[in-house]
Design goal:
The complex is a heterotrimer of chains A (427), B (318) and C (190). Chain A is α/β, with parallel strands linked by helices. Chain A has 13 helices and 21 strands. Chain B has a 5-stranded parallel sheet. Chain B has a 4-stranded parallel sheet with strand order 2-1-3-4. Classes of the chains: A alpha/beta (427), B alpha/beta (318), C alpha/beta (190).
Chain lengths: 427, 318, 190
């Protein structure tokens, strides 16, 4: 029999509004929400000065297991997620072996059970992510897989992508695309532009992302498929999705915190921590992405949390693997860098991605009695310094190392159980 | 100055200082015994990930003429093939106690990355497409030797600028000394953006040639054709090669330069390479003196030392 | 100027401030004249004699000696200048940069080299000069002419020709030019 919990003294914020209230959790569900101050429970969690919100949902996390456990495991990634306020993450399939079969999908889901977070998994669109043959989507959907992506790379072959979309519409699942035309990108290690020219680093142009967004919008129109564009990073990409939506196409998109806070100028130190795919772009792109988030064209924030073992990020810039950590810093950045009211910022991290993933029943939902208690308690004023060694992730590759951020998770509850108390993981 | 990572980090005065220091080392090179004990007891290490006999030998000659000890880290050998990371390699060298590491690598930024793992000086001998500062310094010195100085000159840098660390370093050095630089190349061989570069660009070599004091030719690598950057070497040479006909249109005093090794018949006609106005041999000769100046400046000149107050009560040199 | 002293004495790069004049221009001229005679006498003429002034203070004295020798003997020995920066023993401990040109116009093998400096102090500059000279050949002999010997030797170096013996305190600074020899100190540049 699990303990009952009361979250006391906070301000409840969800998709329906804001109100000062205490929240009582019992048997994994929200039992009561009241501002009378008379709720009691076995465990009291102090939420003074804090916001009580639905747990965050990340549509884009690399948990690295199976295959790259030295960088992260499902357990350590889930812990990092919980500390970041996430109660649900969607694992990306570019593991080793890739998640392109029921067997590997099952293994990932199994490893996710009992961790600090509700670990869901995506699966690859093509076998081995090789881009030539479709994965057994129906079988995978039977296991609960709702999202298919070859993330890590994009599906290069237009005809194959069309077939995948047609097939997917029959199953009611979403295809997500890492938009990067390999030929145009041609191994560029950063954004092609003034900075790459000055630094002497081979670059990839914005167009390498945009041509694939353009193509998939056209294919979505042709097939009627539901397409989710992952980690968009340029002004024109956002504009293309806006136009697609205006047309009525069921397209959605996400943006990462690093793409709304950092630019390609950061690469001037040649520190591979700033190497990522898609690369950090220009000031104008950052402005466009932020405007997209504020205006609704961009549906949600997703971290693209991409751990890499420290020694791999000590290689020369063009040889280092691309990717940055994100789970533990996303919330603070969303709360402080976008200039949005707190409910809108939380929405971008919680109920909106939850709806896209199709888990709105259990995550991101309004805080009302009867709902599954997947919650986070956030102190929006807490200042903390990002220390790579102190992060729960096994890896250290955060571009915010040494920076002081404002906004921190105090408690996280997963299905009613406190997995983070006073910013410390309980599991 | 603790490291020499790129000309971009230097100002005109720094460059002039190194050129003046080079004069002293040119004189040393003319002595019967061209060796001074200035860096006795110091150790300089070569860390060359890219093959480069001429640059390495030039540095080695420079170090030896300064009486420094040298260590050569052979990268083609086992440890790197076994997957030893850059950091581990550098920390191994550091543990042996070296005063300077001279590094050449195929990836831009490696010398800067290395500075965080070593206590000594790092000298960039070429990093990817980024910079080759000692080449630019010896180029400036050679121009000064033949034309009296660099300021006010019109210099054309011709060829594959996009992939050339020599072009980047030279563009910085020449402009910081007050020259006017024009890059001449087909659009595919210019960097994607020239924002922030204090240079002009042209696709027409013939239009530029009448008005230059220095023609600096870059090596045209044969591999560029497979990347569809130029249709053929023949077309490249027709448009951008310094042929006899073109060189005859240059002013009397104009000089022709090349960082070497030359592709005779491609960027430079075979007979042009041997003309008196082609100063390639001087560039190589000056390379040793320039590198001596750099090594001395970083390791011997004490410029980085705190000069006032707390000095040991030892004797002074008089 | 007491350039070398100024550069190697704390506060480095300060300014010389004179307190007493020890010799005036006439005194200096007479001393140079006397040393010239001594050089001719000691070497039985000027055959194979080469004058080398140490940068920067010694060069003017080497030139003055050359003129005097020509007046006395009718011949003017070859004149060179030498900057010993690269041969110093305190490289890495002090700011060290060559201040001026080194120009040795003849092969020194078999020659009698007369090093000329303005002030002889610890002897370390001369040691460096001995080292440097050997990179230009193997002289038959090396002799030393100084305008002022101020004592405080740290090495077994002794001058052959002395303009003026001047006992000093360690912290004092001597400035010798063709116009005067002054005693003073180095103060921090404002």
């Amino acid at each position: 029999m699990s303990k009952s919990v009361v979250i006391r003294g906070g301000r409840v914020v969800d998709a329906y509004g804001e109100r000062a209230a205490d929240v009582l959790i019992d048997d994994g569900r929200i039992a009561a929400v009241s501002d009378r101050g008379d709720l009691t429970a076995d465990l009291v969690l102090d939420a003074g000065g804090c916001v009580v919100a639905p747990g965050l949902v990340d549509l884009h996390t690399h948990l690295r297991q199976p295959g790259k456990e030295e960088a992260e495991t499902i357990e350590t990634g889930a812990r990092a997620a919980a500390l970041g306020g996430f109660t649900c993450v969607l694992a990306m399939p570019n593991t080793s072996p890739p998640i392109d079969s029921a067997g590997v999908a099952r293994e990932v889901l199994e490893l996710g059970r009992g961790t600090c977070c509700d670990v869901r998994t995506s699966a690859a669109i093509t076998v081995g992510r090789q881009g030539t043959q479709l994965t057994p989507m129906a079988e995978l959907a039977g296991l609960g897989v709702r999202f298919f992506t070859d993330d890590g790379s994009g599906v290069q072959d237009g005809r194959l992508m069309r077939r995948a979309m047609e097939y997917a519409t029959g199953l009611g699942v979403t295809l997500a695309q890492h938009c990067e035309d390999d030929v145009l990108a041609a191994g560029g290690a950063m954004n092609e532009g003034a900075w790459s020219s000055r630094l002497g680093i081979p670059g990839q142009p914005a167009e390498a992302e945009e041509v694939m967004v353009m193509r998939d919008v056209a294919l979505a129109r042709l097939t009627g498929a539901r397409v989710h564009f992952q980690h968009l990073s340029t002004r024109r990409s956002v504009d293309l999705v806006a136009a697609a939506k205006a047309e009525g196409l069921p397209a959605t998109c996400e943006v990462t915190p690093h793409h709304f806070t950092l630019t390609d100028e950061r690469c001037s130190t040649y520190d591979p921590v700033f190497k990522v795919n898609p690369p950090l772009r220009t000031d104008d792109d950052v402005a466009a992405v932020r405007a997209g988030l504020a205006g609704g064209t961009v549906d949600c924030i997703a971290t693209d949390h991409a751990p890499h073992a420290p020694e791999t990020k000590e290689a020369p810039f063009d040889q280092a693997p691309p990717g940055m950590l994100g789970l533990e810093t996303a919330l603070a950045l969303a709360l402080t860098q976008l200039g949005l009211p707190i409910d809108q910022a939380l929405g971008l991290l919680s109920w909106r991605p939850s709806a896209i993933l199709g888990v709105a029943e259990v995550h991101g939902g309004p805080i009302e009695p009867g709902r599954r208690a997947n919650l986070c308690v956030v102190d929006p004023a807490a200042r903390w310094t990002v220390d790579p060694a102190a992060l729960a992730s096994r890896s250290r590759n955060t571009p915010y190392a040494g920076m002081t951020l404002t906004g921190r998770v105090r408690h996280t509850l997963l299905a009613g159980e406190p997995v983070v108390i006073d910013a410390e993981a309980q599991r | 100055m603790k490291h020499l990572l790129g000309i971009e980090d230097l100002d005109g005065d720094d460059i002039e200082h190194l050129l003046t220091l080079t004069d002293s080392f040119v004189e040393v090179g003319k002595r019967r015994m061209p060796k001074v004990p200035a860096l006795q007891g110091r150790t300089v290490t070569w860390l060359f990930y890219e093959d480069s006999t001429r640059t390495r030998l030039s540095f080695e000659q420079a170090a030896k003429r300064l009486s420094a000890d040298t260590l050569s880290f052979s990268v083609s050998a086992s440890s790197v093939k076994k997957g030893e990371s850059l950091r581990d390699t550098v920390e191994t060298i550091e543990a042996m106690g070296v005063d300077a590491i001279v590094v050449r690598h195929g990836s831009a930024g490696v010398p800067r990355q290395i500075t965080q793992w070593v206590s000594g000086s790092v000298i960039n001998a070429g990093d990817g497409w980024h910079e080759h500062p000692t080449q630019a310094l010896l180029d400036c010195f050679t121009i000064r030797e033949h034309l009296g100085g660099v300021g006010g000159l019109r210099i054309a840098i011709v060829g594959d600028v996009k992939h050339s660390r020599v072009a980047r370093s030279d563009a910085w050095a020449f402009t910081k000394l007050g020259a006017q630089v024009t890059l001449v190349a087909p659009p595919t061989l210019l960097p994607p953006s020239l924002d922030g570069w204090p240079v002009r660009a042209s696709h027409d070599l013939d239009a530029v040639l009448g008005d230059v004091d220095v023609v600096y030719l870059l090596r045209m690598q044969r591999e560029r054709m497979t990347e569809a950057l130029v249709p053929s070497l023949r077309e490249y040479t027709a448009c951008y090669g310094l042929t006899r006909r073109r060189v005859d249109r240059l002013g009397d005093k104009a000089i022709v330069m090349h960082p070497g090794p030359m592709n005779r018949g491609v960027e430079i006609a075979a007979d042009v390479a041997d003309l008196p106005r082609s100063v390639v041999v001087d560039q190589v000769r000056n390379g040793v003196a320039v590198r001596m100046a750099v090594l001395f400046d970083l390791l011997g000149s004490g410029r980085g030392l705190v000069t006032v107050a707390d000095q040991p009560q030892g004797s002074t040199l008089t | 100027m007491a350039e070398r002293e100024r550069r190697s004495t704390p506060p480095f790069g300060g300014v010389f401030h004179a307190r007493t004049q020890v010799l005036d221009a006439d005194d200096v001229r007479r001393a140079v004249w006397r040393m010239a005679h001594e050089i001719i006498e000691h070497n039985h003429g000027l055959d194979e004699v080469v004058l080398i002034g140490l940068q920067t203070g010694g060069v003017m004295f080497a030139e003055a000696l050359g003129e005097a020798l020509e007046k006395i003997d009718g011949t003017r020995p070859p004149l060179g200048s030498l900057d010993v920066a690269f041969h110093r023993d305190d490289i890495g401990l002090r700011p060290v940069l060559p201040t001026a040109v080194t120009d040795i116009p003849v092969d020194l093998t078999g020659q009698v080299v007369v090093l000329v400096d303005d002030v002889l102090f610890t002897g370390r500059t001369i040691r460096a000069a001995l080292d440097a000279v050997h990179t230009y050949g193997r002289p038959r002999a090396i002799q030393l002419a100084v305008m002022v010997d101020r004592g405080h030797r740290e090495l077994p170096i002794r001058p052959d020709y002395i303009g003026k013996n001047l006992p000093t305190r360690r912290d004092e600074v001597v400035n010798a030019t063709l116009e005067s020899v002054e005693l003073g100190e180095v103060v921090k540049e404002r």
